């Protein structure tokens, strides 16, 4: 939640930090927290140590002030612990003369915190593009790039660039005067095995109670709030949670509509959901086919730098966010985390969460990438409190909303809800039975909880790659790419996929070449 530039030269006993306009300043150093009606900023000092806290506002609490609170040396540590314990999702930064700068995150990480150290200066931002001046494209992290190209994402501090790190959940970054930036991981979070319900026990009421608590943690207002309502189980359950909240009238429901019969079914189901909610909600929609990645108006077709961690549906989602902004929306609820809540363990299904990964090696993977494939699971974070795939999804979606002044809220990643669903027996998690029961008991028609046709973006991405991806691949093959030069992308394999897409005969997985294009777009402005 910080955008910052701090140098050790400014951290002395005769210089004080002070709040100025929108940031704390000291000499040439500054720390700018993300300011929003649902976030708060706090700072304290004992005259030697100074701590800066950016956090999410909780309901029924008095917002913190950015003025620096003076405390005694004896009470500094206790006061800092109190502030962390009384806040929602948080990031803290501690500065002391002659000591390493320390930045620490809590367990939820709604906003990513990227860091880069250069010539004795620590730079940081929640938006990776704010650190683009510190991206040395000659210092690619081959393992991080390979994870992206091979569709084997892992939650880790590594980014595409060796010079930029992500501060992962509960981790602490240390930046000393003479040393490198070091990320210290926490102890693994403890997770519980599923417990058997007593005969006749029903987990739905307690799930709804915990969902209600999660939805009400922050002081949102319905008229200034939106929900991403795809019509799937996750977003529908979140929408139902908002409906029953005291603030739930007047929410804006936003949907990216799919193509063909999938879009027709999706639209019908969303209409049934909104008809049931009947709380003065408004609805905005965006057609995915009007915003294909790498189309003529796509952000990926512009000669600008992009983050490799942007959503591949960013064009449609950004248009939807613009509609939210037009409605005065300042917070958006998502269904991120629902898949993870209902996930099965490896022992339960002999595959576990992560079974979505393609079992083969993508044809566009080059020799340098194949060489590091055995290391895919090295240097990853220990077990997190919130499922790692949900944390990665937050990292993807957070900056896009924040750039528009919208704060993202992900109630299905609440740690208490995560723990409860870990306790829920397999028969309630399989095929998302628990979520389907929540929806089914509302009295809505059966097709809302059990649609006849699977709805996903695969056909949309295949269409985009056939229309716009193939010309982009041809450009890459003709002009070259740093990824080809580094041996991370195999030009022959890339050409083969382009040939199949161009001929209208793609094989399973060819549409995923979009991730190779996204990686190239992060390195080259074409």
Commentary on this structure:
This protein is an alpha+beta fold. It has 18 helices and 19 strands. The protein has helices spanning 76-86, 142-149, 204-215, 233-243, 260-277, 314-326, 338-341, 346-349, 367-372, 388-403, 415-423, 426-429, 433-440, 446-449, 458-479, 482-485, 491-503, 514-521; strands at 2-7, 18-20, 23-26, 29-33, 39-45, 50-56, 68-70, 90-95, 101-105, 114-118, 121-125, 164-166, 172-175, 181-184, 225-228, 252-257, 282-287, 331-333, 407-409. A hairpin with a 2-residue loop joins strand 3 (23-26) and strand 4.
Question: Which features does this protein show?
Answer:
526 residues, alpha+beta, seven-stranded antiparallel beta sheet, 18 helices, globular
